[in-house]
Amino acid sequence: MELFRYKKPIPLMAKAKIFFAVSIIAVLASWALIAFKGFNYGIDFAGGTLVQVKYEGKVPLQKVREAVKASKTFEGASVNYFGSEDEIVIKVRTSSKKLGTDIGDEARKLLEGTGTFEIRRVDMVGPKVGSELREKGLMALVLAIAGILLYVSFRFEWRFAVASVMALVHDISIAMGALVLFNVEVNLDILAALLTILGYSLNDTIIVFDRIREGLTTVRSSKLADVIDESVTRTLSRTTLTSLTTFFVVLTLFAMGGEIIHGFSFTLLVGIVVGTYSSIFIASPLLMMMGFDVEKYRQKLAEKKKREQEKEKLRAMYEQGTV
Amino acid sequence: MKLNYRVLVFIAAAIFGLALSAPSLLSLAKGPKITLGLDLQGGLHMLLGVDTAEAIRSKIKSLASSIKYAAEDEDLIIDEFKVRDGKISFELLDKDDIPKMDEILKKIEGIAIGKEGMKYTISLTPEEVASVKKYAITQAVDTIRNRLDQFGLAEPTVAKQGADKILVEVPGIKTPEQEQRIRELIAKAAHLQLMAIDEERAARVDQMTPAEAAKYGDVILPDAQNPDRKYLVKEIPILDGSMLTDARVAFDRNNQPVINFSLNSQGAQIFGDFTGKNVGKRLAVVLDNKVYSAPVIRERIGGGSGQISGGFSVKEAHDVAIALRSGALLAPVFMEEKRSVGPSLGADSIKASMIALITGFLAVVLFMVLYYGIAGVIADVALVVNLFLILAVMALFGATLTLPGMAGIVLTVGMAVDANVIINERIRELLYEGKSVAKAIEQGYANAFSAILDANITTLIAAVVLYAYGTGPIKGFAITMSIGILASMLTAILGTHGIWQMVEQKIEKGGLNKWFGIKVAGGNA
Question: Which of B342, B356, B451 is facing A210, going by the closest CB pair?
Fold first, then answer.
């Protein structure tokens, strides 16, 4: 079977401006969402308590809400279905420092008489830990980006590194924007998903860049746009196929992996789509924008080769004892 | 067909993967196994903080009482003796006592002395403060570990985390009640004190304020069962739990559970002397600042054993005895973070992620065969070996499989075929260019290598950062991702290459559709 057959380069770079415009709007909209609406931090980052309760049969939601309302500890708590109609989560911003009797135990007492239930999960994060986790999370994102920047600069060229990191910022921003837009609760697993997007989207970009690096020496034209068009077209088949397989795998995770990894898989779904788009339409045009010069690159390569040859010659002469 | 080193390495990896993942998959008795994280098997995860300020406060308090004791012993008259804001201050009344006081203070380590005429201010040196704090944490870790070990649970983990936190993980908890009992056991200060009742003023206890009691060197303590009942006891205890050697649950005449404790020889000596001198007076048995009983001393009690009674349930008595045996907590601990997962939720999570894993896996496997023909089959073989390798390596290092870890494996399935997609696309390209099959394969692998390497290393960088900065379950995700990436380099690049080298002679002319899923005009081989 074959879905994409290379015939001739698709002139993508000619339309780079359109893609830029779309991306800039999307990124700005995401930033605006983050700034004005803000993340819906879950208890991992904001601190608080989450109690997950499963009932035998349907949850008597009204009764539960009344019971929760009557309690002081659960002031301002939210009660919502979780995955199905026989399961709920109760969330409250408070957490108790006491080890002996905690909020989970209180919930147990509170719900007595509302039916037959089982408390399946109690997560409690103190405010201090919450802010620590947030700092650590941000640190992880920054460090990962810095590490990648270094590696790509070393393996390619600085413009490639900057372009790939800009594409990453683009992907992460839009994924974050989607989190705000769909009011997904941001917990540790979402952070893991964002970091995975980082790795994944970069994966895609690197493979296109690798082709461009190769094309710089093999494609006849010395116009960067031509080299990019040729390379992107040649990798188009691989990029779409891999994205599709990964997308389907994550889709099964989203559909069948259970409520707990819903947010995680949602973030990944968005990330895969955006990451694929950016590695084709954004990362490479950025190279053009930064004024990457094919001629100069080729000259540099030629000089490097020449220097190496000369060195080799000198060494050979030295070994023969002629110097 | 000829064997080559690549295939041999691949077969070795496959055998290694199968052999080492079998114990985990088939739950065999022998062999290294993957441990399930608390989110999958159910259990209690807690991050505890230690109130080190309290440890400093009690250190200063005991320092104060020893200075006071030494001064009285030397007949020094001191005035305005105060403990405020972590500082002890007092004034000598007689100038001639200064050298004697200096002599006393010289013997005490870790204090800073400020002197202004006859006024003294004493505080702990910063080094001493740090070491008291550090000791309070280590002691808390040891004590909590002791208690959980004695409680008889399967493999609890108690470890220091960061500078001042304690990580406690207890797998295999069945009910919330059991969990609460464990938390209570950990939280118990288990501070046992034997204190003398101030018989002169005890009758007036209900009218007395704490400040007034302090003036007489007394404290007011409530009864353990009936908080309205108060006792007036001497502030400085006769004995405390540090002289305890054992504590056991026993039953009294009415078949009520009690705790019998025994003291070491020094404690037995002090206890004997005190009871001998105070026949007819009452002795309060105080646990965590509550009076459990206050029996009248009838005669000198030698042998150094005593009893705590006072309406315990059997469970309570059992837990108190454990706490006493494993020692008191120097500083109170409090909850910073808690995650508890019931066993049924863990089982549901395993089921859901297994279904997702299998469905995703089958979809990818099927797609590869449909799209690439035999090349897809070869990629699938590598994918299967990759899965087993991940499990094997995890089992070998005793790694923990968490829910995000399962997601990591699912994701690896999606990404591991990527290498083979890249390679197969390259081979197809070369075949279209009219290269022979053998040449297309060799060059395809060579061309694809740099892209795969760079892509994998960058993903690995993200995974390593995630591991370094993540906690608990997230670390699990980073581990499975990293192992998956490394394993895929072995299976998807080396393994499939070896298989091609073995079978390439078999590829018949015009069989490109069967082998690579493409039709090339003219056909080449």
Answer: B451
In whole angstroms, what is the distance from residue A269 CA to residue A253 CA? Answer: 10
Q: Write out the two tokens for A58.
A: 């349907």
CA distance A27 to A286: 15
Do residue B335 and residue A95 have CB atoms under 8 angstroms apart? yes
Q: Which of A217, A234, A245, A267 is most worth mutating to test chain B (most B CB atoms within 10 A of its CB)?
A: A245
Q: How far apart are CA A116 and CA A119, in angstroms?
A: 10
Give A170's pLDDT tier (boundaries 50, 70, 90).
very high
Token code pair at residue B127: 């080094």
Q: How many CA atoms lie within 13 A of A89 on its CB side?
A: 16
Tokens of B430: 């070369």
Tell me which residue has tokens 């395993």: B350
- State the residue for tokens 């034997």: B194
Alpha-carbon distance of B458 to B337, in angstroms, equals 33
Helix axes B437-469, B472-488, angle to 10 degrees: 160
CA distance B494 to B16: 16
Predicted structure pTM score: 0.77
What is the tens place of the pLDDT at every residue in A63-110?
888 888 888 778 888 888 887 888 888 888 887 777 777 777 888 888
Q: Collapsing DSSP states into helix, strand and coil, what is residue B264? A: coil
Terminal-to-terminal C-alpha distance of chain B: 17
Cα–Cα distances (Å) from A139 to A126, A177, B425, B462, in that order, read: 20, 20, 38, 12
Listing DSSP states for B424-459 in one string gives: HHHHHHHHHTT--HHHHHHHHHHHHHHHHHHHHHHH
- Three-state DSSP at A74 gives coil
Chain-chain contact of A246 with B371 (C-beta, under 8 angstroms): no
Q: B243, B264 in Cβ contact below 8 A?
A: yes
- pLDDT above 50 for A234: yes
Rounded to whole angstroms, what are the CA distances from A147 to A198, B182, B257, B486? 12, 43, 62, 18
Tell me the chain A residues in contact with residue B479 when contact means C-beta distances shorter than 8 Å: none
